[in-house]
Amino acid sequence: MDSPLIALAGNPNSGKTSLFNAITGARQHVANYPGVTVERREGSYRRNGTELRLVDLPGTYSLTAYSLEELVARNVLVTENPRVVLNIVDASNLDRNLYLTVQLLELGMSTVVALNMVDVAAGRGIEIDCETLSKRMGVPVVPTVARNGKGKEELLQAAVEVVKKNVAGTPLCISYGSDIDPVLSVMADRIEKAGFLTGVYPARWTALKFLEADEEVMRKGREENPLLASELQETVDKVSLHLEKTLDTYPEAVIADHRYGFIAALLKSGVVKRKHETDRLYLSDKIDRVVTNRLLGPIIMAVVLYALYYFAFTVGEIPVGLLEQGFGALATLAGNLIPEGHLQSLITKGIIEGVGGVLGFVPLILLMFLGIAFLEDSGYLARAAFMLDRVFRIFGLHGNSFMAYIVGGGIAGGCAVPGVMATRTLRSSRERLATILTVPFMNCGAKLPVYALLIGAFFAENQAKIMFLLTIISWGAALLISRLLRSTILKGPSTPFLLELPPYRMPTLRGLLIHTWERAWLYVKKAGTIILGISIIFWALMNFPGLPEKEQAAFDASRQSAVTQLPEDLRTTALKGELPSEGLSEDAAQVREKLLAIDHEQAQAALKNSAAGRLGTFLESVTRYCGFDWRTNVALVGGFAAKEIVVSVLGTAYSMGEVDPEEDTPLREMLAKDPAWNPLVAFSLILFTMLYVPCVVSIVCLAREAGSWKWGLFGVVFDTTLAFVVAVVVYQGGRLLGIGI
Ligand code: GDP
Ligand code: MG
């Protein structure tokens, strides 16, 4: 027989993982839940010959299937039938944590409560009467300190006793008030009689989920018994309408209110004793009065965010510079070690420059994530999301979409990959999808080099203003597009902002480092592997098939004829391109110039003839409406791999066999001088880069998080069309009005 399964459930940061580690020690392994990127941590424990299996569920505040974590946690509870649920509860934040406990009990799970962090609670003068609490809830309550394993044995003892008794828990019934209770019992009756989903959930629970508009349960219900499902739905609609008319509220809010009411009742008359009044919550309230103030709030938020980016960019500058130099030195070294030819070019131009260009950003990203982790762990981001919820609601989004936008590059610098992953905190799948699809419009760190290049070349006098304008445009685009999506293909109601404001906490260094590391590692791993592959492919596309022999011969011939003016002994050196730039006679200097010009022309011709060049030329028939020539097209196609590549391809395209290798003309100056370019073209290209297809890594991540490749494809087609339309309108409009040409 399989050993009994014990599930650890609790709010995020309640100490689940600490307790899990304390119990299982090294006997554990980590995998992902099938099909989703939520970690599943499993382990085992042996006690007096009884073996127990343990699973550490994702941290959740609730068991509604609004977020991925909640869905995963709930599915384990109902499909794997754990014999006992160890519910880890943060004693210093008891009422909020018991919200989940109540739902576990409603689901009829055999529960043992671990009253964790009693040390923290004691430090704040909070004392909890476990015995009374246990009696009132009807489940064992054991005080623990997961950090040092205190109370672990007693807890396991309680769990083993529950396993031995082997009686299924009876689902807890709490009253939801005079509007909901009658409906709930009618619905539960119907469900019970029809045997509707009863193999999975208790009948009353299914009814509750219908009232809470739980999409997963409703979907399952429609599959099993469409008739009954629509009958239940009708009942729910009637109650909702009634509640809206009479109380201006909706079932979900009423249900939440009553759960909190139930918890308040559990805790009343002496279960919780406070020694001193200056409780942290009290202080939190005081801080909140200032921080979420209607006037001061937004100003503080702007300052905080500005400080975050200022911190990341100023501190990050040095290591980013060092890394760039390091990769440069590595490329030079490889260039010296490997003989000239395709291999050398592949390694230096394809691999080191491609991957280095991206890995160079790692320090910046680490710092940014560190700052964001600080804001998150301290509780500030919840406030920011809370304040913005009103605004976001207008656009069919949720306050929590804000986090995703910020991580995705909302202030400039960020990455759509973690941005898209940050949408996991969103509860409604439609709001989540709308956010996922619009996060890539933010100005991620990879777009910045493109902006920097073009702004430097054409808008040098207005750098800050243009950058500010671009930030506004990207937010405007994201919000408007999500409004569009939410009124068309993602139509549906918005979910209330249920997240309560957690008390402010001083983040622990360890917690910060772990959070930062988790995020940064994803970036390094995904970016590192995929970009390596794509860089190699692009290198090949830009180098093959090379020039036809005839043209090659023509270039060789013109080189030969150029060197005839030189004395015999210099000709071979000259043909190898090894003439020094100084100390030459006037004639020789002229020949050198001429040879460099020929090299340049040949490199350009080869690029144009390469697979990428031909594609770029082919695309010109469309892109000329937004002012792009074939080189820009190649760069943009490359940008599909990673947007930084736009800059490096333009660099290659314009400087291949640079006019004088010893006299680095910055690409910026080359573009500024080139007749094909002007501020209007540059602006049109900036907008195109901002809006067009997200990079490959983001697409992969987007498709995975959205749950279907169709959404990935949608992103590709929709974003590129949008970018094209915007670029054409701007370019043609600008030409018509004579701006920037
Ligand atoms: P999870 O998110 O529920 O898995 O929580 P973790 O196990 O990662 O714990 C979150 C933080 O709380 C960590 O920094 C732990 O060291 C800390 N922690 C966990 N249990 C206790 C406890 O009983 N007392 C104290 N003081 N800290 C704890
Ligand atoms: Mg954990």
Mean pLDDT value: 84
For the largest sheet, list the strands in their spatial order.
Answer: 2-3-4-1-5-6-8
Coarse shape: elongated
Work out the helix count: 32
Largest sheet: 7 strands, mixed
Count of distinct structural domains: 4
Strand content is 5-15%
Please compute the radius of gyration using only Cα atoms.
31 Å
Count of individual beta strands: 9
Distance between the termini: 79 Å
* pLDDT < 50 runs, ≥5 residues: none
Structural class of the helix and strand makeup? alpha/beta
Share of residues in helices: 55-70%
Which small compounds were modeled alongside the protein?
Answer: guanosine-5'-diphosphate, magnesium ion
Give a verbal description of the structure:
This protein is α/β, with parallel strands linked by helices and 741 residues long. A 7-stranded mixed beta sheet has the order 2-3-4-1-5-6-8, with helices on both faces. It folds into 4 domains: 5-165, Rossmann fold (3-Layer(aba) Sandwich); 181-280, Helix Hairpins (Orthogonal Bundle); 287-545 and 610-648 and 665-741, no CATH class; 547-607, no CATH class. 65% of the residues lie in helices and 7% in strands. Magnesium ion binds at residues 16-17, 59.
How would you summarize this macromolecular structure in one to three sentences?
The protein is α/β, with parallel strands linked by helices. The chain has 32 helices and nine strands.
Question: Which characteristics define this entry?
Answer:
binds guanosine-5'-diphosphate, seven-stranded mixed beta sheet, elongated, alpha/beta, two-stranded antiparallel sheet, Helix Hairpins, Rossmann fold, binds magnesium ion, 741 residues, 32 helices, single chain, 7% strand
